[in-house]
């Protein structure tokens, strides 16, 4: 008999980019009832409802995915933003470590952990029960981001728990960190990009192998339909909304002009697609089989 209470969904997606092996892992999801104002604080509810209906989405409900990326090169295994881990706030998230084993990799094989920014869904899994989850890995993080969260800079009112977690999880690992600036080469073929705004030192990444390109946009875009419908709309989780708008315009335009695949942490799994420029703005085109042939 069919179990109507259990949904089976894809959790791991892999493809090749040149000689690099890309793996996306579903760390989980949150179901929310606030598409507005969560996805766009400076838009009206009717505007967001219109976008939802155009995409056959059940306004005001939404599913917010968390999708870390793993890249294997010839001499490195790089984990980008490895999710919540055991600090997940509920059973619908924190799946990364369990699923990593299914990919054939282990935490001990990870050579580098790249942190795009210091929000909990990106840093919480750096330690497990007080010890490093990726015990052999160098941690790469923006110098600006580290200094912002580890110091006493002014933060949005709702970010108090974020600073607390950062200082509990990341700061004790400072001696294992490499602090970088935008345009830094992280490993051969992977470069940091300035994506400031979502957080103080938020980074995106350009990946290239044998002429094939990929952009990791991290949290530059937060919702596949709403974020691209109007780049002026402000995501509620952006720490500096005006700066985030400037960044979004620049990186979205870059991604569209390259015609290269894009991965963004909160896009619907498997979180790989293309950004197309249209007469009215931009839209997300999910990748299909082109990644595997």
UniProtKB/TrEMBL annotation:
All residue ranges annotated as the Metallo-beta-lactamase domain in the record: 65-266
Pfam families recorded: Lactamase_B
The keyword Iron-sulfur belongs to this UniProt entry's keyword annotation: no
Signal peptide coordinates: none
Keyword Hydrolase applies: yes
Gene3D superfamilies: Ribonuclease Z/Hydroxyacylglutathione hydrolase-like
InterPro entries, alphabetized: MBL_superfamily_lactonases, Metallo-B-lactamas, RibonucZ/Hydroxyglut_hydro
Family, similarity comment: Belongs to the metallo-beta-lactamase superfamily.
The protein's name in its UniProt record: Metallo-beta-lactamase domain-containing protein
Provenance organism: Uncultured marine bacterium 66A03
Lineage of source species: Bacteria, environmental samples
């Amino acid at each position: 008999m069919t179990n109507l209470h259990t949904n089976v969904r894809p959790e791991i997606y892999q493809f090749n980019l040149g000689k690099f092996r890309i793996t996306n892992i579903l760390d989980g999801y949150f179901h929310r009832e606030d598409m507005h104002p969560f996805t766009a604080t400076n838009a009206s509810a009717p505007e967001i409802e219109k976008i939802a209906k155009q995409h056959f989405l059940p306004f005001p409900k939404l599913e917010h995915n968390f999708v870390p990326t793993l890249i294997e090169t010839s001499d490195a295994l790089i984990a980008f933003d490895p999710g919540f881990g055991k600090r997940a706030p509920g059973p619908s998230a924190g799946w990364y470590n369990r699923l990593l084993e299914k990919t054939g990799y282990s935490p001990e094989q990870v050579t580098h952990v790249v942190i795009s920014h210091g929000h909990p869904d990106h840093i919480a899994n750096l330690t497990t029960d007080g010890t490093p989850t990726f015990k052999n890995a160098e941690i790469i993080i923006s110098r600006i981001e580290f200094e912002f969260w580890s110091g006493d800079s002014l933060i949005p009112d709702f970010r108090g728990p974020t600073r607390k977690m950062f200082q509990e999880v990341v700061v004790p690992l400072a001696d294992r960190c490499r602090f970088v600036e935008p345009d830094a080469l992280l490993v051969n073929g992977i470069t940091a990009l300035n994506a400031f705004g979502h957080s103080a030192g938020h980074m995106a990444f350009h990946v290239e192998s044998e002429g094939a390109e990929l952009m990791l946009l991290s949290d530059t875009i937060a919702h596949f339909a709403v974020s691209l419908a109007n780049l002026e709309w402000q995501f509620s989780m952006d720490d500096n909304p005006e700066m985030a708008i400037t960044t979004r315009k620049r990186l979205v335009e870059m991604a569209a002009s390259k015609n290269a695949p894009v991965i963004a942490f909160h896009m619907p799994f498997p979180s790989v697609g293309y950004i197309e420029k249209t007469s009215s703005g931009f839209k997300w085109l999910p990748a299909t089989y082109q990644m595997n042939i």
